[in-house]
Amino acid sequence: MSFWKKLFGTGGAAEKPAAEPIEYKGFRITPQPMSDDGGYRICALIEGEVDGETKTHQLIRADVIRDAEECAAASVAKAKQMIDQVGAGVFRA
């Protein structure tokens, strides 16, 4: 039965509240570390306005960090780096 609980998320630990977005150069970065293989994978949601429309980009990196808070900080740092490098180009396919 635990397989089904893990698959559908029932009966497990309480869900962690979403992190607050961080404003950076006109973008909003929300760290979203993903649980992965004994640690957390770097992941963040980047949002911004382009031509009056809200655009989003899900940043996911291969890096896995053991501590969730460390991973959240690294996720924000990687998102900032991406914004610095490509700006609104982050939303292009």
TrEMBL record:
One Pfam family, short name:
HlyU
Q: What is this protein's record name?
A: Transcriptional activator HlyU
Q: Which organism is it from?
A: Sagittula marina
